[in-house]
Task: inverse folding
């Protein structure tokens, strides 16, 4: 998978993809993330990328011409399956969306800043608008990092044990059960006996039960459908 990200603050995206699972994905050649500074397409000597909004009001808006030039130049190099704008008024990211996007080949993500981007970009180019939650970030970069992480770990071959993503919270619509590791007893805080029993079937049943219990108490909304 190839992901291009357009950002006015590319430095914010240097670190997130250079560690752990996403780093492994990149090393294995399964995922490539290229972050592009929007200022490269900025206008004039000052490389201007934003301007005051028509109709007045506080906050700058990212300019239609700048973003059009950026998107068209990148689109000439690669055919995108989706052009995604990260925005608090988009559809809320969930595991289903991450699963769906992980099956794509090329994605372009646009990070907004200031007051937002000129609406014409959304009308003309953007195929999907995604929010990572009902709160406002100062830009789309951290949201893009979250989105890339949620997608990248799902690519076949990225996780050591490919089945492990199958047992994540949300992967089958419910939360994951509790997990434990050594020691068995720490300050008299015991690990549930059943996990030490070696009875795979009983352990599986216990995990299903705990997952359901946890979902009922913490996220009953997930059980509605
Ligand atoms: N940009 C600012 N806030 C955001 C959010 N919650 N999700 C995605 N992009 C954003």
Result:
């Amino acid at each position: 998978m190839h992901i291009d990200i357009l950002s006015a603050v590319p430095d914010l995206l240097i670190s997130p993809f250079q560690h752990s699972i996403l780093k492994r994905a990149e090393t294995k050649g399964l995922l490539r993330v290229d972050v592009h500074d929007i200022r490269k397409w900025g206008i004039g000597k000052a490389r201007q990328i934003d301007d005051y909004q028509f109709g007045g009001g506080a906050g700058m808006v990212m300019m239609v011409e700048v973003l059009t030039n950026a998107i068209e130049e990148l689109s000439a190099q690669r055919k995108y399956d989706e052009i995604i704008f990260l925005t608090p008024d988009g559809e809320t990211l969930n595991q289903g969306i991450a699963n769906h996007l992980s099956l794509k080949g090329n994605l372009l993500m646009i990070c907004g800043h200031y007051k937002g981007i000129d609406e014409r970009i959304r009308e003309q180019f953007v195929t999907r608008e995604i929010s990572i939650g009902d709160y406002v970030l100062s830009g789309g970069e951290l949201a893009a990092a979250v989105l890339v992480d949620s997608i990248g770990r799902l690519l076949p071959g990225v996780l050591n044990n490919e089945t492990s993503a199958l047992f994540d919270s949300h992967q089958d619509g419910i939360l994951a059960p509790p997990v434990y590791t050594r020691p068995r007893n720490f300050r008299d805080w015991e690990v549930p006996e059943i996990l030490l029993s070696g009875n795979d079937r009983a352990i599986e049943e216990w995990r299903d039960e705990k997952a359901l219990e946890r979902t009922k108490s913490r996220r009953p909304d997930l059980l509605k459908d």
Observations:
- The chain has two domains: 2-152, 169-223.
- The longest helix spans residues 200-218.
- The chain is about 30% helix and 20% strand.
